[in-house]
Amino acid sequence: MRIGEAAAAAGTTARALRYYEQRGLLAAPARSASGQREYGEGEVARVRVIRDMLALGFTVTDLCSCADRLHLLERDPAPRCGSVDPADPASGVVGRRLAALDAEITRLTALRENLARRASGEPADRTAAP
Q1: Does the entry feature the keyword NAD, yes or no (predicted)?
Q2: Cα 23 to Cα 61: distance, rounded to the nearest angstrom
Q3: What is the pLDDT of residues 63-106, one digit of tens each?
Q4: What would the pLDDT profile of 120-129 be if each residue is shown by its tens digit?
Q5: What angle do CA 59, 102, 123 make, to 5 degrees?
Q6: Residue 39 per-residue DSSP state
Q7: Rounded to an integer, what distance in angstroms lies between the CA atom of residue 95 and that of residue 88?
Q8: Which of 50, 102, 116, 125 is 20 to 30 Å from 34 at the Cα level?
Q9: What is the pLDDT of residue 74?
Q10: CA distance readout (Å), 82 to 53, 86, 89, 116, 119
């Protein structure tokens, strides 16, 4: 299938597919005689994994650091992707992402509590994180 069809099948844009290819997340696809990119179901499955990981809060940089293992997530059901083994390079990506989410939850909780105090007429907590 051509790039537009593959993008639609994966729920993204042709521009995103070219970007993923440029960043090394997606292998360069086969080309037609006229030079157009041709994608198969394997590439579409990989783009779906990339999109799922981005939706979970991973960055493109995070995914680039473990691009050689993304194919493992194409299986249905996907295997466990986290690891508690510090020797496993993938555990660093998942661990950093979880830590970043925990920090953001803490920040947003403090922000919400401060706003609720102000809304009820109590003085704001000036020591709370912005």
Answers
A1: no
A2: 9
A3: 998 888 888 888 766 556 555 455 555 567 778 888 888 899 99
A4: 988 767 665 5
A5: 125
A6: -
A7: 11
A8: 50
A9: 80
A10: 13, 11, 10, 36, 41
Angle at 27 between CA 72 and CA 61, to 5 degrees: 70
Which single residue is written with the structure tokens 């995070």? Answer: 62
Q: What is the DSSP string of 56-106?
A: TT--HHHHHHTGGGGGGGGSSSPPP-----TT-HHHHHHHHHHHHHHHHHH
- The answer to whether 37 touches 31, Cβ cutoff 8 Å, is yes
The predicted model scores a pTM of 0.71
> Which domains, ranges and CATH numbers included, belong to the chain?
1-81 (1.10.1660.10), 86-130 (no CATH)
> How distant, in Å, are the alpha carbons of 14, 65, 87 from that of 40?
14, 24, 34
* pLDDT tens figures, 51-65: 999 998 899 999 998
